[in-house]
Design a protein that fits this description.
Elements: H1 3-13, H2 20-41, H3 48-59
Helix pairs in contact: 1-2
């Protein structure tokens, strides 16, 4: 689904009484989720266990 199609579908499912600020926030969330999913599909992520190891090492310094 194209970005435009995703936006149109998301907006069509929103309640009619949302403000522009609320619509913008919803669309920003949609964009972030789609970018995160694309990163995951492309392998541009760090596994949770690795982050926990790095964080633990950082805290012990």
């Amino acid at each position: 689904m194209s970005d435009k199609q995703a936006v149109l579908e998301a907006v069509s499912q929103m309640p009619d009484n949302l403000t522009l600020a609320q619509i913008r926030a919803e669309l920003e969330l949609l964009a972030a989720l789609r970018e995160g999913y694309a990163d995951m599909q492309a392998g541009r992520v760090v596994p949770h266990e690795e982050i926990k190891r790095q964080y633990a090492a950082w805290l012990s310094k």
